[in-house]
Write a structure and sequence with these properties.
The protein is an alpha+beta fold. The chain has two helices and five strands. The longest helix has 35 residues, at 16-50. It starts with a helix and ends in a 6-residue tail after the last strand.
């Protein structure tokens, strides 16, 4: 005997949530293992860059090590590399090696 199409469609309707549950779990795991740590890292970098002051020793993403000699504006600083002073985009500062105690 053949099963009617209406009966066959209604029999699988209860498993729709069970089919979506693995996808939801994968997204939640991906959020906590990949997306959230990256957001925290970006937030920490933004705070570090906004706190740059004259006299701070920094490392740029290009590997240059120098001292901040002037904060030009919101997006640019001047870094003293010894004999040469270069203008650097603030967001390219990868690390602050040492901070000055006073803002100078």
């Amino acid at each position: 005997m053949l099963i009617s199409p209406a009966y066959a469609q209604s029999a699988g309707g209860g498993f729709a949530l069970a089919n979506l549950l693995p996808l939801v779990l994968i997204f939640v795991i991906m959020y906590f293992l990949m997306i959230r740590p990256q957001q925290q890292k970006v937030k920490k970098h933004k705070e570090m860059v906004s706190a740059l002051r004259r006299g701070d020793h920094v490392v740029t993403q290009g590997g240059l090590i120098g001292r901040v000699s002037k904060v030009k504006d919101e997006s640019e600083i001047e870094v003293d590399l010894g004999d040469v002073k270069v203008r650097v985009v603030r967001n390219t500062v990868a690390q602050v090696i040492s901070k000055t105690d006073s803002g100078e």
